[in-house]
Specification:
The chain has 271 residues and is α+β, with helices and mostly antiparallel strands. It contains nine helices and six strands; from the N terminus they run αααββααααββααββ. It folds into two domains: 82 residues, Arc Repressor Mutant, subunit A, CATH 1.10.10; 114 residues, no CATH class.
């Protein structure tokens, strides 16, 4: 499915490519974050550009705190809060309680800001309904769920040719990172990070999230191909289609006794 234009626009959802175009922002007086003496039109443009950078940073890195956004964007926390307040008012982002894994420390968890469905739509395809309708037609006319599974596997297998080349060119310890880069080239904003006894592959964006919400076979086929490409079983911990902020796949550390995997654990987030 090819990436289309933005479907909705509004005060907080810029029309056309505005959220995607994150060019150079004018030098600003950081305390006020506005160019001194600039015309009002330039001030408004700078505000929109910086606000788009905040939304894009949340897309690329997942739900984020004010401190994390300020550090990534080189802004003051006060400036970030101001832009977040505007994005919240426009239903582009929403505040959530940060999920804590393991023992929780004292005090309330930090508040994080995540894209809403409306905000995510600004980066998504224009053809979600068409794709869902096509899969429904395939399901009804050509073999039910098995037909959808066959389509999902064929689709990801075609994409996987580039992923396989990237992985094969990387050292064994760098293969998850290589897969993340290849996925990012396809619009998944993927990262790899260390985890206890393995690694986590995080996809901060899913171009087919709305379709996968109705047809989880797309997620299952993707998880299967990750297993085949990396030569080990993998476990899907969370998906954007299931309502999570990030698609997260756990990849265990490969040992000498680990056989090549032909199947994977494609479970959904149990939470």
């Amino acid at each position: 499915m090819t990436q289309g234009t933005v479907r909705r626009s509004g005060r907080g959802l810029p029309a056309s490519e505005e959220l995607r175009n994150n060019g150079v922002v004018k030098n600003v007086d950081e305390a006020r974050e506005t160019p001194t003496g600039a015309p009002q039109e330039e001030l408004a443009t700078g505000e929109r550009s910086t606000r788009n950078r905040v939304a894009r940073s949340i897309l690329d890195h997942g739900p984020s705190t004010v401190t994390e956004l300020a550090g990534r964007l080189g802004l003051t926390p006060a400036a970030v809060r101001r832009h977040l307040d505007a994005l919240v008012a426009d239903d582009v982002v929403e505040a959530r309680e940060q999920r804590v894994y393991g023992a929780r420390g004292r005090g309330r968890p930090a508040k994080v800001f995540a894209l809403t469905d409306c905000g995510r739509d600004a980066f998504d395809q224009s053809y979600d309904k068409l794709a869902a309708d096509a899969l429904s037609w395939i399901q009804e006319r050509f073999g039910g769920d098995e037909a959808v599974v066959a389509f999902a596997r064929a689709r990801i297998a075609e994409q996987a040719a580039a992923y396989r080349r990237a992985i094969e060119a990387a050292a064994p310890e760098d293969r998850t990172e290589a897969l993340a880069r290849a996925l990012s080239a396809d619009g998944y904003a993927a990262t790899a990070r260390s985890a206890p006894v393995g690694e986590q592959l995080c996809q901060h964006h899913c171009p087919v999230a709305h379709v996968a919400e109705k047809f989880p076979q797309l997620c299952d086929a993707e998880t299967e191909i990750f297993s085949q490409l990396l030569g080990t079983h993998v476990q899907r911990l969370a998906t954007i289609a299931h309502g999570d902020g990030v698609c997260t796949t756990f990849i265990p550390k490969i040992s000498k006794t680990t056989p090549d995997a032909s199947a994977s654990t494609a479970g959904r987030n149990p939470a």
